[in-house]
What we know:
By secondary structure, the protein is of the alpha/beta class. Helices cover 51% and strands 12% of the residues.
Amino acid sequence: MDAPWPEPPAGALVVAIVGAESTGKSTLASALAQRIADDTGLATCWVPEYLRTWCEAAGRTPRADEQAAIAAEQASRISAAAQRHAVVVADTTPLVTTAYQQVLFQDTGLDAAAQAWQRRCALTLLTALDLPWQADAVRDGPHSQGPLDARLRTLLVGGGHTFAVVRGRGPARLESAVDAVAPLLRGQIGRAHV
């Protein structure tokens, strides 16, 4: 089944960052995009997590029937960025939405579409559960980290996705991500200079 959501164009390198709440995805996405741009000169951007924006605007977490639209908007924003950039660092993808859908609502209805969409990503970085919990108004709590991490790992392995686990604090976490992405960037740099 093809994803019903906009897919990134062929040729754009999409690096997906997925993980449980409070595992540094947003900080890592922003820093990694900047580092890639600085190191390679490639047009690079990061796409923030739409779920966070949605929750802040609504003042609540989404219901089960709102998950598909959130996944579609995340996919749309990533795809739009990939039209204009050689490298896009995505702070979550529809795969995270389906993981939440499963953990919170025991609903696997988005799985096939999310798996199909994830296959368009060149690499997925899974943020480890090694950072201290940071509470905020839209997070469920530290009890949600383990189940979501387990669900994401099952989806990544089950879907046959290429992924690397990113660990460490501060600069070490960024370097872990850079090490994972570096082999892909060599090919992208070659295409950009042809």
